[in-house]
Structure formats: structure tokens, C-alpha cells
Amino acid sequence: MAERSTAAVDVADNSGDKSLTAEADQSTADGVAQNRERDTDNDEAQGSGGTDGPGKASPPELHSGHKLARRYRLEECVTRLDGFSSWRAVDEKLRRAVGIHVLPADHARARSVLAAARSSALLGDPRFVQVLDAVEENDLVYVVHEWLPDATELTTLLSGGPLEPHDAYQMVSQIAAAMAAAHREGLAHLRLNPNAVLRTSTGQWRIRGLAVNAALRGISSDTPQRTDTEAIGALLYAALTQRWPYENDAYGLSGLPKDLGLIPPDQVRAGVHRGLSELAMRALANDGATASRHEAPCTTPEELVKAIGEMPRIRPPEPAFTAPPEYQRTTYQQGSYGRPAPHPGVTQPVPSPPPPLQSRTGKALKWAVSALLIAALGLGSWQLADALMDRGGTSDETNQTQTTDGNGKGSEQTKPAKPIAVKHAQEYVAEGSPQAPEDVDNTYDSDSSTYWRTKRYNEGPTLAPYKPGVGIVYDLGSAQEVQSASIALRYAGDHTTVHLYATDSLTPSTSVDGMKEIGTATTSGTSLTVKASKTVKTQYVLLWITAVPSAPSDGYSSAGWKQAITDVVFKG
Questions:
Q1: Where exactly are the structural domains of the chain?
Q2: Contact of 194 with 156, CB cutoff 8 Å
Q3: End-to-end CA distance of the chain
């Protein structure tokens, strides 16, 4: 497998721009063997059930409460296998949960584990559980990584049944895109299974153990891209059917019936999405021969990403409609006002209507009322006719017609603003490292559950002087008159400041100082509207954030100064 540079690099918690990469991930270890191995021992899902193999180095004598580097306090051993152990621990310096793999420095795989951890850390992709530190000291090698307390393994999710089509689509899309990015940097996973895939409380999918899990077990592959792609196909197959696509049971899932071969998901379970079923079969190629008879196999994560992009997008299900409470019909009865409401089930006497006016006085009163009504009708008709004649005369004199735009007599209104479709978008990086360039499309996908987010900063709300700002350039397809932008945010708090600038391309040729400002706005809530001080015509708009609020810990990162954008709508 092609590897990135493995120069000795200690990955600090405060990596780049004074920002911290995403915090905390569940390190209940990875799970059993790779798909092609088809073994079923849940080595990392168990607490300490493994034993050392013959000739292996003995695991370090560690216990709960032991400290590494006078900083990481071991709390619970979740795996002990093949001479290494995995722990849930606490970083006492930053007061956060972390996961740690520990093995003796003289272990046969110690060098490869360090190299894999440092290469993985250099990737810095938030779709992967981040390696925070990789150290050799006191005859020990240990790798510190995130721990996500709110994340759930795919294994656990599937114990309740298969995923909905939209969830399965999101899972395979995000996992395939993340692995394609890793392979572009020469990194492979090789142990991608339901124990290594997590879904956070915000609906994002994360992958743990990139390169490290395979190095801990000495697993390699001559065709790493093929191995990881087939693994993604197996994940999608399991998500659609709640079955493992091989004969042996694994990860709490039943395998397929023996001697029947690989059956398409839509033949295993009724109601499976046809396009996703075909996609799983294209990825589950064996020895170069596709399991699908209709389409070419996908043998790399990049090819799988392309195949997903060619599919019609699967929208989330419509929210269930809850009928309002039955309309309570109210009846008004003569003389009932001010009386107590009748008790249910009690028969009420029907009031008798008053006798008609039969006296001479009554007849006179009826004639008087009739005369008044006739007079009122006549007066109203005369006034209506007079008004119509006046309007007709005015129309003839001015030669104008009243329109729905309000271009009528004595009024002048502007046309209502209309949404402007976004064609493309790209993160704009003025200084330092990017925030989350792979998630930019989430800001205009009409899905409020997805978002683009900043990194977490130690101080705020103003990002300067550590970073002048962070943002995204949007391509509106052609020059448009931009009047406003409505922006939905993930975090509330004091405070978020957003500026809009007109620029010349997705990769501006000038700095922000050289751009024309459209408008600016500040909020302490989760939404704001930036209105143009005057209408500006431009094809490219930079949304530039210069201040972010202090937000609590969530599935992406721990508490700190940060913000995320869920939706942006331009109007003009």
C-alpha cells in the first residue's frame, strides 16, 4: 500500500490556526476481521476477551488509573489482543475523553503502528476519527485518538433493523467520499467494517481506525483500493438487508444461505431501494468480476463516488402529518351569552322562539326597519357607482392600469425578491488551513440536517488576529442582482458576524479588502438575514464569517468558539 511520509511528527491537540480538530470518539475498538477474511471474532467489541498469540510480545502491565505522559489517565480497558491493549481514557490537561492504543516498544508491529498513526494524523480529515498523538516513551508506544460519546456504531444501529433508504444513501455517500480522499493521500483502512463506522447525534458518519487498526493486527493488501471498496459494498449491503453478504455470520448479522452465492439486496428483503441494491452489487466485486450483471464494477472508492453521483438523489422521508385535534363546532343560541356552559350528557330544554310581532306597534316597526334597509341599499349603490365612475375617469386620464406589482394610482412598490439558485461553491481560505471543504455543498442542499462547520477555537467571538475570517464563495451561475441572503446556523450564542462580498471567481484574485461589500449582519441566534446596503450585481458571492459564538460540546467537537452553516438562500 502506498504510504504517506512517516516522518516523526507529534500531532498536537492544538493543530493549525489555534483551532482544535474535532474532539472525542468512541474507541470501543474496531471489530473483527476484514470482509475477505470472513472471521467472526468480535475482538474489539469485547472488553478483554483476547489472548496473546504464540511468540507475541506481552502486553504492558497497565491498569485503570495509570497515567501516560502525566496526562492521559486510563479508565477502562476495552480490548486486549495480540500484545496490545485499547483503553478509554481521560486527557486531564484538556479535560476530555480520549481513546488510547498501547503496545510495547519492542512489539513486532510497534514501528508500523507509529507510522500509520502519524500518516493518518497528517490527513486531518474530520470525516475520520482523528489521531491526536502518537508517542514512544518509557518502552511503550501509544496512539491517542478522539472519543465520541454520542456516536453509535453501525453494528448497534443494525441490531434494530435495516436503515431507511435515505440513511443508507447518506452513509455510503459519506463513507465512499471519505475513503476516496484518504486513498488520494496514499492511506487505506483495510478493516472497514460495521464496528469501524459511527453515526453521530447530528447524523454525520465518521470512520475510525484509518490505517491504524490494520497496522495493529499486521494486515496488509496488494490491492488496498479494491479491499476498501468491497468493504464499503458490504456495509451498504448490510445496511439495506440486515444481513452480512458472506456465508459466515458476523457483527451480530446473519450470513447468507450457503451454496446460493451473492444474492442482490432487493431479492433478500422486500422494499429495498433498487438503485442502492445495484450499487452494493457493483462494489461487491470478487477477484475483478462484478457481482452485478448490468453495470461495470466499482473497484476503487473514487469509482464508487462517481457511481453514487450518477444516481438520482434520495431525499429524506417527508415528516409524518399529525392531524390537528377535532374542530370543536360552536353553536350560538339566542340568550345563551353569559350563561354557564351546559354539562355534557345533560339534555337542555330547547328555548321557544319569541312570538311574532302582531300588534299595531309591531307592524309599524317592521315597516320602519324595511324602509331603512331600502334607503341604505340605495345609498350604497349610488356611492359604489360614483366610485367606479371616478376610477374610470382617472384611468382614462392617466392611461394606466392597476397591476399586481402595485404600480397604481399613488403607489410605487418594488418587485418581490426571488430565490437565486446556487450552481457551485468552494471554501475560501485566506490564511492557514481550510475548515471543512468537503462539506461546502451541505449549505445549499435544502437539508437542514447537514452542514459546513468551522473548526473549534480557544478564544472568541472575533476570529482575528488568529484568523481574519472563514467562509465560502458561491457561484450563482450568472450575474445576479443580490438583495439579501438568509443564513441558518447551527449554534446560538454571543455572537456570529457574517459579511457578504461580491468577488470575481470561485478562487478570488484579490483579498477580502479588495472586494466590494454587499452587506453585513450580526446575530446571537441560529438564523440571520444579511441585506444589501444597495443592490449589487455579481455572479460570485463570498460569505465571510469574522465572529463565532461559544458553543457546547456535540458530536463534532467539544465546547469552544465555533459555528456551522446548515442552509444559505440568496435572493435578488
A1: 19-146, 152-310, 419-571
A2: no
A3: 51
Q: What Cα–Cα distance (Å) separates residue 196 from each residue in 17, 30, 133, 199, 506?
A: 29, 5, 20, 10, 36
Q: What amino acid occupies position 449?
A: S
Residue whose C-alpha cell reads 441490531 in the numeric block: 159
> Residue 292 pLDDT > 90, yes or no?
no
For CA atoms 227, 230, 235, 241, the dihedral sign is negative
Quick one: fold of 152-310?
A: Transferase(Phosphotransferase); domain 1 (1.10.510)
User: What b/e readout covers 361-386, taking b as 16+ CB neighbours within 10 angstroms?
Assistant: eeeeeeeeeeeeeeeeeeeeeeeeee
pLDDT tens-digit series, residues 488-537: 999 998 999 999 999 998 888 888 888 999 999 999 999 999 999 887 89
State the Cα–Cα distance between residues 87 and 66, nearest whole angstrom. 11
Fold of 419-571: Jelly Rolls (2.60.120)
Buried-state track 212-247, b at ≥16 Cβ within 10 A, e below 16: bbbbbbebebeebbbbbbbbbbbbbbbbbbbbbbbe
* Helix (H) / strand (E) containing 361: helix 360-398
CA angle 15, 17, 18 (to 5 degrees): 70
Per-residue pLDDT band at 401 (split at 50, 70, 90) = very low
Among the listed residues 452, 451, 469, the one whose alpha carbon sits nearest the alpha carbon of residue 460: 469
pTM above 0.70, yes or no: no
Look at residues 89, 85, 88, 100 and name the one whose alpha carbon lies nearest to residue 134. 100
- Among all chains, which residue has been given the C-alpha cell 469485547? 46
* Lowest pLDDT segment from 131-140, 304-313, 366-375: 366-375
